[in-house]
Design brief:
With 614 residues, the chain is of the alpha+beta class. Helix 6 crosses helix 24 and helix 7 packs antiparallel against helix 9. The protein is built from 25 helices and 13 strands. The protein has a domain of 154 residues. The strands form 5 sheets. The protein has a 5-stranded mixed beta sheet. The chain has a two-stranded parallel ribbon with strand order 1-11. The protein has a two-stranded antiparallel ribbon with strand order 2-3. A hairpin with a 2-residue loop joins strand 2 and strand 3.
Length: 614
């Protein structure tokens, strides 16, 4: 396999670690609410052990290895052994940073960017450290586990550099021989039964069953401290219907498979469990935004016919996260994310995670003038609530999917509804059984985030394409120039002419997202694909990317608290940890029992038959 530059795949030693501070929010909860939060947090974290099994074939094995290394003896004793086998102090710090970053991401691929990261220390000496560890004597299988994942820890090549279908990347959502064509076949099959297109397809249940069996009793325990019947009744897809009716609770919770961005097919979801307490002051701002939403939505570029028949006023809450069990922590979320039918017809909730938004280290800003850097430092934190609010409520919460119902009727007027791009009648729609994710696949995330970026924060693919859209508009609105710094190294200068945002930038973005909404509403995959391909990466982009990567700053990650019940069983204590790699590692060691890790290891070994080439 072709070798690549490994430097972007090494965790920087100066990566900022921020506390996900929930002290004030937790203290404001009643004793019953704290118990409710505690047991749901335990369920969320136990369920999050599914995630390493969803990231890469080696992630769960690495999780087992790291947990047992750090749980079997004090960190200082392990450090002494590391130095004794010839690792340097810098090597030791690199190992701690790798382990902390791995635990935060629940795997060896970064949750932001899906890029693999590796351990950059002498491999032979780390092998000696594993062999000399106390864990190696306590767990007879530890060395064989290490041998199984050693390559995944230390090496990266062109295929393994990023997540993707297994012929071009790495994924465990599909076994090693599954291609995009196979996934497209299955997506078509989901509307049929039995034999399909000459292929006999069987459905096998039970993935992650043993891990989830440890989650269910904790959810049952949570119900004992629920404050209303809705909280007790929440279960499976029906949970989404009930959950959106539980308005303004003091403790907000959600648990399930609901983040489909990492599946290369764009349909299968990653586990996520979240527990958070309401931040009442910031929530007041979002309540005002919801109150004004019906006035704002008609101003979006696609018009009323492409909006939901009735605006279902959501519960929009600012939350301080107490526990989040998944790969990485987001800034905001709309739930139910996976069920467009519920979101369109019954309603949704918007969540802004205040303590993840506010925990922003002040770092130098590359590629902009000193004047613009000053503006960014002054207003980024202040504007972020607005960005997240617009992104979730007016972005993800807007737009309608045109559908043919099971009885043959349509959810739009075929005679009066006009195609906003051609002026003719609507000639395509979603058939029964088709979903936005199943039809658009990997494009779904990029298209959706582009729509939302037009009114707020979004993800990298969307940012790149919208950058190209504004560049294409010309007239000096956005300029990017290649320069050099004081040492002669390649640099970039990015300038946005504030005077041309309204006259040039906004019209270009409006027209672009209007097209995206039209294609999304009418299930027009072909046109959407062509539009995105138009804004592909060219030689100039690749040259600029190399400059950006050479100056890339480490992305912060979080250390989370744990909760524990007091000896009398009537109270809950919040346990916090320092903003260090050791703090992250200790939080994980104290979060999981050895029995839970045994179950993870068993599930990982059962899955290995699907990835024989790893």
């Amino acid at each position: 396999m072709a070798k690549i530059d490994a430097s972007p795949h090494i965790v920087p030693l100066d990566t900022p670690i921020c506390e996900l501070d929930c002290r004030a929010a937790f203290q404001n909860l009643s004793p019953t609410e704290r118990l409710y939060a505690h047991y749901f947090a335990r369920a969320s974290f136990e369920g999050s052990l599914v995630v390493p099994l969803q990231v890469s074939p080696e992630s769960a094995g690495i999780f087992v290895l790291l947990y047992r290394l750090f749980s079997s003896e004090p960190v200082e004793e392990l450090k002494s052994k590391a130095l004794a086998v010839g690792l340097s102090y810098q090597d030791w710090h690199a190992f701690l940073m790798y382990a902390a970053f791995f635990f935060y991401n629940s795997g060896n691929y970064a949750s932001f960017g899906d890029r693999k990261f590796i351990l950059n220390i002498p491999q032979d000496r780390f092998t000696q450290l594993v062999a000399s560890s106390k864990a190696a004597s306590l767990f007879p299988d530890l060395l064989s586990t290490y041998t199984s994942v050693e390559k995944g820890i230390f090496s990266v090549d062109k295929r393994s550099a990023y997540l993707g279908f297994n012929d071009v990347g790495v994924t465990t959502y599909h076994s090693h021989n599954v291609t995009k064509a196979d996934c497209d076949l299955i997506n078509r099959y989901m509307k049929e039964k039995d034999e399909f297109e000459g292929v006999r397809i069987g459905l096998e249940k039970g993935d992650f069953a043993e891990i989830l069996a440890r989650v269910c009793p904790l959810l049952e325990k949570t119900a004992e401290y629920a404050v209303n019947e809705t909280q007790k009744a929440v279960l499976r897809k029906a949970a989404s219907r009930l959950w959106i009716k539980d308005a303004n609770p003091a403790v907000e919770t959600f648990c399930g498979f609901m983040r489909e961005y990492r599946d290369p097919a764009g349909t299968r979801a990653e586990f996520m469990g979240i527990v958070a307490a309401v931040n009442r002051e910031t929530s007041k701002k979002f309540a005002r935004l919801v109150a004004e939403a019906e006035k704002i939505l008609p101003r979006l570029p696609w018009g009323g016919a492409y909006e939901k028949d009735t605006f279902l006023r959501p519960d929009f809450t600012a939350l301080d996260v107490i526990a989040c069990g998944t790969s990485g922590i987001v800034l905001g979320w709309i739930i139910p994310h996976m069920y467009n039918d519920i979101k369109q017809n019954e309603g949704f909730k918007n969540l802004a995670l205040s303590n993840s938004i506010s925990a922003m280290p002040k770092l130098p800003v590359n590629f902009v003038t000193k004047e613009d850097e000053k503006l960014l430092h002054e207003y980024t934190a202040k504007s972020f609530d607005v960005q997240v609010g617009c992104h979730e409520l007016l972005g993800h919460g807007s737009g309608k999917l045109f559908q043919r119902n099971d009885d043959g009727t349509f959810n739009f007027d075929r005679e009066s509804t006009v195609d906003i791009l051609t002026g003719g009648k609507i000639c395509s729609w979603y058939e029964p059984g088709e979903t936005w994710e199943s039809l658009f696949g990997h494009l779904a995330g990029g298209i959706e985030e582009c729509r939302c970026e037009a009114v707020g924060f979004a993800h990298s693919w969307a940012r790149f394409i919208l950058l190209k859209v504004v560049q294409e508009a010309g007239q000096g609105c956005l300029t990017i120039e290649e320069t050099t710094d004081s040492s002669g190294a390649p640099d970039l200068s990015v300038r946005l002419d504030a005077a041309k945002i309204d006259s040039v930038g906004m019209p270009a973005v409006r027209e672009f997202v209007k097209k995206l909404q039209a294609y999304k509403s009418t299930a027009n995959v072909r046109a959407a694909t062509a539009l995105f391909e138009k804004y592909g990466v060219d030689a100039t982009d690749l040259r600029w990317r190399a400059i950006v990567v050479s100056r890339m700053q480490p992305r912060r990650f979080f250390v989370q608290s744990n909760t524990k019940v007091t000896p009398d069983g009537k109270g809950v204590e919040l346990v916090t940890y320092p903003e260090t790699p050791q703090g992250v590692i200790q939080s994980v060691v104290e979060r999981f029992s050895s029995e839970s890790i045994d179950v993870l290891e068993k599930s990982w070994k059962a899955d290995q038959k699907y990835f024989p080439d790893v």
